[in-house]
């Protein structure tokens, strides 16, 4: 039978757990005096403030686990206590049992408090995670908008540069005596040359002999009031413009083209006072010429 002295020591050892009012987290083995047997006392742990909510929750989880373990130990000690029939020893053991019960109640209260705090912190973590996801989504949206704006800025800058380049070309050619009409600049020579040399003059200035596309452009070129080469030549049995397109309809003078002497393979505006003013002419003839440079 276990001696009354040993049971009292066990009870007092258990009571010592609750004297501090601190949470129970670690256990340490001790030796029962006089018997050589071991029992367990429970001592409070020292806690360190966590640097983040995750660390706090991890610490609380451990504290709760320790409290559960302590609670089991106390219950085990309570069940293991047996007393002899000596009235004074029974009274002492009853007193210690009552203290032990109060200790168990305190331990259970601490456990519930720790669980409540852990739940509260977990809820805070959930809210913070939700806010973080919202912030990340907003940042992603802002970055997408910024990328779109940068793309638009690049496009506008390119358009601006292209327009400025056209303006620069326009101003330079106008200063050299070129005339603007419907997206093209035109230059009418004051000297004469054969058709090939006339074209070479135009191409040396990033232009070519004029291509007349419609009646309005035909009237515009006639308005210069002189005889000049245009960019139309014979290609086999067809007439071709210098831009590679074939003539579909023209503004030929009456009886033209007639290929007189079988050598008239280039075209001039001859009778410029008439709407139908085109004439086929040998390319070796000296004429003025009109250059055209598209700027739009």
TrEMBL record:
Signal peptide: 1-21
Keywords assigned by UniProt, alphabetized: Coiled coil, Lectin, Signal
Entry superkingdom: Eukaryota
Coiled coil stretches, renumbered: 139-166
GO molecular function: carbohydrate binding
InterPro entries for this protein: C-type_lectin-like, C-type_lectin-like/link_sf, C-type_lectin/snaclec_domain, CD209-like_CTLD, CTDL_fold
Chain ranges of the C-type lectin domain: 181-292
Pfam families per the UniProt record, alphabetical: Lectin_C
Protein name: C-type lectin domain family 4 member M-like
Source species of the chain: Oryzias latipes
